[in-house]
Design goal:
By secondary structure, this protein is α+β, with helices and mostly antiparallel strands. It has two domains: 30 residues, no CATH class; 61 residues, Golgi alpha-mannosidase II (Immunoglobulin-like, Sandwich), CATH 2.60.40. It contains two helices and seven strands. The protein has a four-stranded antiparallel sheet, with no helix packed on it. A three-stranded antiparallel sheet has the order 3-6-5, with no helix packed on it. A hairpin with a 2-residue loop joins strand 5 and strand 6. The two termini are 28 Å apart.
């Protein structure tokens, strides 16, 4: 969150205070210093939906998401993520884009 705040030009003191407030609001204070390993989000376009999976860390990451199976892989870089039964396995330093299925 602090990285995004810096990109948006927020003052560091304000960004840090506001980040702590927001983490407290959603009961994630204890996670404040944990490094994020995997980003997963859905891109919705006019004609398609894509599940984007990024792991900037050097280590494999495993997480559970509310999607049971992924569609076709339409892009991969430095390894392919796999999704089965909601368990997402993501190689380190990789990116995978799937066509999205609900």
């Amino acid at each position: 969150m602090l990285y995004i705040a810096s990109i948006k030009g927020l003052q560091p003191k304000y960004a840090k205070r506001r980040t702590r407030e927001l983490l407290k609001l959603v009961n994630l204070e204890k996670e404040a210093d944990r490094k994020i390993r995997t980003f997963v989000y859905k891109r919705i376009g006019k004609d398609e939906e894509i599940l984007v999976v990024l792991n900037p860390s050097g280590d494999e990451a495993v997480c559970h998401i509310p999607v049971q199976e992924a569609g076709e892989v339409i892009y991969e870089n430095n390894g392919r993520a796999s999704l089965k039964g909601g368990e997402l396995r993501v190689p380190g330093a990789s990116a995978t884009f799937f066509s999205y299925r609900k």
